[in-house]
Amino acid sequence: MTRHTATFTPADLTRRQKKELRRQIAQGAPPERPARSSRKDRSLPEAAVPGPFGPGLVQGGYWNLAKAVIPAHQATSQHIAGIYPFVADSGLGHRGPILGVDLNADALWHFSPWEAYVDSTERGTFSTNILVLGAYRGGKSATVKTLATRSIAFGHQVVVPSDPKGEWVAVAEAIPGGRVIRLGGGTGTRLNPLDRGPRRTDTTDEQHEQMVKQRRIGTLIALIEMTLGSRLTAVEHAAILDALDRCIEHTGDQPTLRGVYEQLGHLAADTDAAFHAADGAIQPRFVLRRFVEGDLSGLFEDASTVTFDQDAPIVVTDTSELFARGDLAAQLTQVCSTAWIQAVISDRAAHRTRYVVREEGWRDMTSLASLQMFQQWLKLSRHYGISNIVILHKMGDLDAVGDADSLQRSLAYSIVGDIENKFIFRVNHQEQTALRTRLNLPAPHVEMARLLRKGEFLAYVGQYSYLVDCFATSTPWEYDLFATDDAVTPADHDDAELRLIDPTTLDTYWPDPDPIPETSLDGWLLPDTRDLTEEL
């Protein structure tokens, strides 16, 4: 039905008023309804079911005229934050060399322990030392080599006091200016762990002499206690100190292990010495005899034949020839070579930052004296501009330090736990408890550490953690140079393929038929050849 509307407009209205009246009438008029049409006119199939539901436009389907209602998504703020890319972690910034890719932020991950130490924000750290922990073939060595070699371009020097497997030698030889010091194997190279070292700047004569004396005494005590497996008595301490003073006086402040060994012999022969020094000189003298006349002779008992190159980008001490002589020889070698290098690089006024890579780090913590030296060296690392990289395969390596519940083992776990910067690679199932109790890692992180791929690691820098893939940025040159399992190669053929054997070849492997047994009927009828054989 059509509706008609009549309007009456007063004659005295202006043009603007008439326009406004027509606008009001148009707003008040009801909307015109469209003409109704059938489903057939709209080319729609007839509804099989009365109501808004009916068969769909596609055979076998249904369509609904009702408006779709989608409920709002509900989740915790922690999970909902993962939807938005702009809430990803910002990382450590762009200072320092690129070490890998931050898998959480999908960005390059730069790292430098010195840059993190001077960072005054909440992402800063209070230590420059790094703990590297992970199972075999997890990518630890390759990652440390990547960090060390890329840091050379930033002016940092790399020092490896003891390379037990010789894997750093190839790296030093590949870098222009790299220096390799080889011990053993008939090289004739000797290192004197009692060297004075360069004069430290900004120290008085008294302070310098005291530091040199303490380092020499600490080295001697660490060597002797490590060999004896027990702590020295007060008389033995006095005998070692007396022998060192005599050696310094006799050699003009150039003491050696041979000189201390000879002075201990003089003390042992002097029965009239005060405080029974003769009794205290016997055990230390037997220990030093191993360096003078035993299996470690020709390495550390006399004056050094080489000098430390402070201008070289990387200095590696190759001790792979000595580690085949047993664990004790390896530990003594590591203490001597480390003491010789520490005497040179512990100069703050040199204004040189260095990485000190400690392969098989547990060997530096095998006695109480070596533990105390190691702890002091870690504490003074910031003062000397040094970053100690301690590499362990598992926390169980520290079980070789002392007895269970001993002071040595507790101190070793305390030292490792206090290292603030940690790189955790793939670990075995047995390490879960140790990571939670010793390193205080969260349970989800421990579970994640068991599933890491080669080259991936959890990085703990200060109060923040990152998931980094080092091999994502490795070049082919680096990957080939840093590979440590190149001795294990895949098979040159696939044993799963079916290989047919020639029948004639198979017959050659087939055994001959057994002779006819004598118990059979034919055997009874055949002549007995045993008697003929015996007669022949």
From TrEMBL:
<feature type="compositionally biased region" description="Basic and acidic residues">
    <location>
        <begin position="196"/>
        <end position="209"/>
    </location>
</feature>
<feature type="region of interest" description="Disordered">
    <location>
        <begin position="1"/>
        <end position="52"/>
    </location>
</feature>
<feature type="region of interest" description="Disordered">
    <location>
        <begin position="186"/>
        <end position="209"/>
    </location>
</feature>
<dbReference type="InterPro" id="IPR027417">
    <property type="entry name" value="P-loop_NTPase"/>
</dbReference>
<protein>
    <recommendedName>
        <fullName>ATP-binding protein</fullName>
    </recommendedName>
</protein>
<feature type="compositionally biased region" description="Basic and acidic residues">
    <location>
        <begin position="33"/>
        <end position="44"/>
    </location>
</feature>
